[in-house]
């Protein structure tokens, strides 16, 4: 189960990133060109949100079954002094939860906005912040935290 979840979590990252980047670009263009907020825009934002929440759920299950996290949680005192264990026990989960929270709040703010321009602006700002936080918290293969891990 652990390996399957890890692969799924790794793949869903790409779907999430593609949807988030598309949402950010579309929101920026919509805001700057002052166009109408269409059902297509709404659908894209909705799918971005769904995939973010699916990733969050998979992440929670992984957190409970991951041997790395378990070994960190067994001795948090020493884990906090170890860069890798601290990343898996605290940093990855904290920043990812924060980023998905920001995306979710952005969607709620956009829903409440009274004009289409405001909707696009809220989505653009909140989703961009979420995207940047996610990008810096992914254990990319070229980082120490992602050493030995794949791109997919
Ligand atoms: C935007 C959301 C997230 C993205 C893009 C993301 C991305 C990733 C990636 C790329 C990996 C490495 C997969 C691999 O080595 O094949 C990973 C591992 C992991 N993630 Fe996430 N993650 C996200 C959210 C979360 C959340 C919210 C949690 C916890 C609640 C979490 C917990 C974990 C755990 C426990 C591992 C595996 C550690 C191990 O190797 O045992 N992730 N994540």
What key attributes describe this structure?
152 residues, mainly alpha, 6 helices, binds protoporphyrin IX containing FE
Structural description of this entry:
The structure is a single chain. This protein is an all-alpha fold. Helices cover 81% and strands 0% of the residues. The chain has one domain (2-146). α2 packs antiparallel against α5. The longest helix has 32 residues, at 2-33. The radius of gyration is 17 Å and the shape is elongated. It starts with a helix and ends in a 15-residue tail after the last helix. The protein binds protoporphyrin IX containing FE. Protoporphyrin IX containing FE is lined by residues 6, 9-10, 13, 16, 55-56, 59-60, 62-63, 66, 68-69, 88, 92-93, 96-97, 99-100, 134, 138-139, 149-150.
């Amino acid at each position: 189960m652990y390996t399957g979840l890890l692969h799924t979590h790794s793949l869903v990252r790409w779907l999430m990133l593609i949807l988030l980047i598309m949402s950010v670009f579309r929101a920026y263009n919509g805001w700057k060109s002052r166009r109408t907020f269409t059902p297509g825009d709404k659908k894209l934002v909705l799918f971005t949100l769904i995939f973010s929440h699916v990733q969050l759920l998979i992440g929670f299950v992984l957190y409970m079954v991951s041997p790395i996290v378990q070994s960190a949680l067994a001795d948090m005192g020493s884990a906090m002094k170890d860069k890798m264990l601290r990343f898996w026990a605290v940093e990855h989960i904290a920043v990812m939860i924060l980023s998905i929270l920001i995306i979710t709040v952005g969607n709620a703010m956009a829903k409440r906005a009274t004009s289409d321009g405001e909707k696009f602006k809220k989505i653009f700002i909140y989703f961009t912040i979420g995207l940047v936080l996610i990008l810096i918290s992914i254990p990319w293969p070229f980082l120490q935290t992602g050493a030995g891990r794949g791109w997919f």
